[in-house]
Amino acid sequence: MFTGIIETLGKVTDLQKDQGNLRITVESTISSELKIDQSVSHNGVCLTVIALADGKHTVTAIEETLNKSNLGHLKTGDLVNLERCMQMNARLDGHIVQGHVDQTATCTELKVLDGSREYTFEYDASTDNVTVEKGSICVNGISLTVVNSKQNSFSVAIIPYTFDHTNLQQVNKGSMVNLEFDIIGKYVARLMQR
């Protein structure tokens, strides 16, 4: 479980195909503190650390993960948002995030406003995922508040700190991002279908 509060950015240093899987090596300020078998969120995807060396860590994304997230589109040098799993004795600053990406979305608009940025994302609504005005959404692992909710799109407003400390600085019109919809909203939506 995660909170959606990004700890640091990591830089992709190596990508290796392994049958249908992808081994991703990341250099970051927290890599030397990680342990083998530890769960770490990479752009909102919960992945297990399988190797550590020289201030870098390696994780494996399986084919299912690559099909449902933007990890298969990573290139060497890309930045990824990193968060270690939450501690049960700590404050929950964001919202409950499982690290299970539901689907991807495309940035359709980016507005640079006076003191903030507003991103609009469009997603495939046939998956029955929904957003709610002022509700929570996880974009590339970042806990954000929905500003404008529509059937297949939503907007989020970003403060300068979030922009400077996450890979939203690399997101432009046409960029693909990972989405994890609010867990409570997913359960309510499922119950409403019955």
Q: What can you see in these coordinates?
A:
By secondary structure, the protein is mainly beta. It has helices at about 65-70, 160-165, 185-190, and strands at about 10-20, 20-25, 40, 45-55, 55-60, 80-85, 105-110, 115-120, 135-140, 140-150, 155-160, 175-180. The strands form 2 sheets. Strands 1-2-5-4-3-6 form a 6-stranded antiparallel beta barrel. The two termini are about 30 Å apart. The relative contact order is 0.20. The mean pLDDT is about 95.
Shape verdict: globular
Structural class: mainly beta
| Largest sheet: number of strands, sense, barrel closure | 6 strands, antiparallel, barrel
The number of strands is 12
Radius of gyration: 16 Å
Order of helical and strand elements? EEEEEHEEEEEEHEH
Q: Average pLDDT value? A: 94
The order of strands across the largest sheet is 1-2-5-4-3-6
Helix-strand layout with pairing:
Layout (H helix, E strand, L loop, with lengths): L7 E11 L2 E7 L11 E4 L2 E9 L2 E6 L1 H6 L10 E6 L18 E10 L4 E6 L13 E4 L2 E8 L3 E6 L1 H6 L10 E6 L1 H10 L2
Antiparallel strand pairs: 1-2, 1-6, 2-5, 3-4, 3-6, 4-5, 7-8, 7-12, 8-11, 9-10, 9-12, 10-11
